[in-house]
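$ ./design --mode recover --in tokens.txt
reading tokens...
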């Protein structure tokens, strides 16, 4: 069992900006006024790493999400195509005036040419990326989910090779009239082989293979030198290849090169070593620049023509490139702000105390759990107590997008909130619901747990048909009809207004690998199975069965049931630090807890700090007052058990009693700390990390309690 920390891909995010600038260079030829050869080398060879890099990023983040469930894969693919398709449509609308001005809709325009451009070429010369990425991901997903990773790579490499002959190596094709005629026929369907069929898939698959084989621990041990050497070596060979092809005039186009494949592999690996925080804003900015920069080219050229400054502003290629680049970034930033304002923007939720919720980690955990579940076992996501402090309906709606449609809550009100927020699928209320609210159960299409025969009779007496699950107590000693009362259990299935959809029990010590606890758990399982068999002998169908919660899956993965009620593990945690489990699953914490320094002050030796003078300064010290307290869910005893927090990547002791709204941190050896600094209580800061398990152990509790009692004043900030 591995509990991973947040992966940081700052290198990828920052290189996106470089790649966007390289795309601008391709379309403005910045060195043309200086040297034709220098410009060719930059724009037709070196800058050709930009688009493959974007393809690899897509593959890196999308392909690793694919699993064995084809329905879920299809759902993810549909969401991806919808998202990119909307961007493509908006880009088309943006450039309609430019297309009209350029005469796109005049002599050569036909329905066939329009369809061809929409599917392959893009409706403006740079928009081919959008249909390219959509078609490329479709092809890659189809192959990746049916073949091994390496076989998928070889197939996409073959496609790349076919496309290569219609691009940089077209001169070879022209040597054979028969082969030339085949390619000419292909060019009637698409003007270039640089498209989603031939160009994109191999880079998408390469990104996916790197993602699925990358081991963060191993990467830390590996030295960067081999990748740097590989990049320099194959980058040099790429430049030589491009120059030789140019000298011998073999190119029809100049996008696809043989050595571009290994060059991109080593470049991408190098970028994964580039330390830095994830910067979603850079991802968005690079996309805006990619879309907007041709418009900036038109604007600069138009302004130069009107002012009579075509010579210095356009014919001077370096000046032209610089102006287009600056204007592209300025307009992109303005567009981002305008769209954010139009959408209402997101209020700053990181002013006092907040929890960062990393949705990609949740998605990763879902996939990891699904891989260890039996083939026909579905995840029932336990989202009670605001999804263990992560935000109930927000988490449930995100899980809906991942294809999960079974949820468990503790109370009817939790279930109603999910429904009102648009959560789809079955919502099982695990706890007792006052029978007088039965009509709300029916109205909001909730599923109620029936805890015993008496309760079943009462519910049935209201003459309201509702779906229910029958709970059997096999040794937990809580809710549920005792497994010994078979007749009472059987009677619960015969009430005409109760539509039984499932039967379940709960294991009380599935988290323990002690021999006596294992024996007890197996005894519970045997009791449940005995009841199920007796029901079937009576001609009763118990419907869907579920027994395992998180630890039940991690320690008893061999059990074959219909649902697995996943709670704490879904959120990337175990209940206690050091817990051992039988099944190895790479879980990543979804929640990080943070607050801010609101005051820094000096404390003289001997001065008391906090309530009850719980801390007496042993020397002249400096302290930071932090805006979070026990009303926010931070345990009051935290400061009395040697607990720490993180400031600027350093562990600092929490001193004095934790107050209702604030706490105090000793920062005596940190001169640079100022008001507004971020303080991390759960999560990673630079190379240091405090896990929820560590904090819970310090307070002699479990993570389940710790995170589920985070107060409503702690704002949840969702990162996707």
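writing sequence...
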């Amino acid at each position: 069992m591995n509990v991973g920390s947040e992966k940081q891909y700052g290198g990828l995010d920052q290189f996106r900006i470089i790649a966007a600038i390289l795309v601008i260079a391709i379309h403005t030829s910045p060195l043309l006024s200086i040297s034709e050869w220098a410009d060719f080398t930059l724009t037709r060879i070196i800058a050709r790493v930009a688009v493959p890099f974007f393809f690899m990023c897509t593959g890196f983040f999308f392909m690793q999400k694919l699993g064995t469930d084809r329905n879920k894969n299809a759902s993810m693919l549909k969401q991806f195509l919808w998202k990119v398709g909307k961007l493509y449509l908006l880009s088309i609308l943006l450039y309609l005036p430019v297309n009209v001005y350029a005469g796109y809709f005049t002599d050569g325009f036909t329905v066939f040419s329009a369809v061809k451009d929409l599917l392959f070429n893009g409706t403006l010369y740079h928009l081919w990326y959008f249909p390219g990425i959509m078609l490329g991901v479709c092809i890659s997903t189809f192959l990746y989910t049916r073949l091994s990773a390496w076989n998928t790579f070889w197939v996409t490499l073959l496609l790349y090779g076919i496309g290569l002959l219609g691009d940089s190596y077209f001169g070879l094709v022209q040597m054979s009239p028969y082969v030339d005629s085949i390619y000419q026929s292909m060019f009637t369907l698409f003007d270039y082989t640089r498209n989603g069929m031939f160009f994109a898939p191999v880079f998408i698959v390469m990104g996916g293979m790197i993602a699925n084989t990358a081991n963060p621990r191993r990467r830390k041990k590996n030295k960067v030198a081999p990748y740097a050497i590989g990049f320099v070596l194959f980058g040099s060979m790429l430049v030589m290849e491009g120059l030789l092809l140019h000298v011998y005039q073999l190119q029809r186009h100049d996008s696809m090169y043989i050595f571009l494949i290994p060059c991109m592999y080593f470049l991408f690996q190098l970028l994964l070593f580039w330390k830095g925080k994830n910067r979603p804003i850079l991802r968005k900015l690079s996309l805006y620049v990619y879309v907007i920069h041709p418009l900036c080219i038109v604007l600069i050229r138009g302004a130069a023509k009107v002012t009579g400054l075509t010579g210095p502003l356009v014919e001077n290629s370096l000046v032209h490139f610089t102006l287009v680049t600056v204007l592209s970034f300025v307009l992109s930033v303005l567009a981002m702000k305008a769209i954010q304002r139009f959408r209402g923007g997101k209020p700053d939720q990181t002013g006092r105390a907040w929890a960062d919720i990393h949705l990609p980690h949740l998605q990763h955990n879902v996939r990891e759990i699904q891989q260890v579940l039996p083939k026909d076992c579905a995840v029932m996501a336990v989202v009670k107590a605001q999804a263990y402090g992560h935000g109930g309906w927000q988490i449930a709606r995100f899980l809906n997008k991942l294809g999960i449609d079974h949820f468990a809550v503790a109370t009817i009100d939790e279930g109603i909130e999910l429904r009102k927020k648009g959560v789809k699928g079955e919502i099982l209320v695990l706890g007792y619901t006052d029978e007088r609210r039965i009509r709300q159960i029916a109205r909001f299409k909730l599923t109620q747990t029936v805890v015993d025969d008496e309760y079943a009779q009462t519910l049935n007496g209201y003459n309201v048909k509702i779906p229910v699950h029958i709970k059997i107590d096999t040794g937990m000693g809580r809710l549920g009809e005792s497994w010994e009362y078979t007749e009472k259990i059987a009677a619960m299935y015969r009430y005409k207004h109760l539509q039984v959809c499932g039967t379940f029990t709960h294991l009380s010590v599935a988290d323990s690998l002690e021999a006596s606890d294992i024996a007890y758990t197996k005894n519970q399982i045997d009791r449940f199975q005995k009841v199920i068999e007796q029901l079937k002998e009576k001609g009763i169908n118990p419907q869907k069965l579920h027994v395992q919660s998180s630890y039940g899956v991690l320690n008893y993965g061999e059990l074959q049931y219909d649902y697995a009620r996943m709670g704490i593990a879904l959120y990337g945690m175990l209940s206690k630090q050091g817990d051992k489990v039988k099944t190895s699953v790479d879980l990543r914490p979804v929640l990080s807890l943070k607050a801010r320094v609101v005051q820094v002050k000096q404390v003289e030796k001997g001065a008391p700090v906090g309530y009850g003078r719980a801390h007496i300064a042993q020397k002249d010290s400096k302290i930071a007052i932090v805006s979070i307290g026990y009303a926010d869910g931070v345990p009051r005893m935290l400061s009395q058990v040697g607990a720490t927090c993180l400031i600027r990547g350093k562990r600092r002791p929490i001193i004095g009693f934790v107050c209702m709204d604030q706490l105090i941190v000793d920062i005596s050896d940190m001169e640079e700390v100022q008001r507004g600094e971020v303080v991390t209580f759960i999560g990673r800061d630079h190379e240091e990390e405090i896990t929820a398990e560590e904090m819970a152990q310090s307070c002699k509790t479990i993570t389940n309690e710790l995170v589920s009692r985070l107060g409503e004043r702690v704002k949840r900030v969702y990162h996707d």
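exit 0
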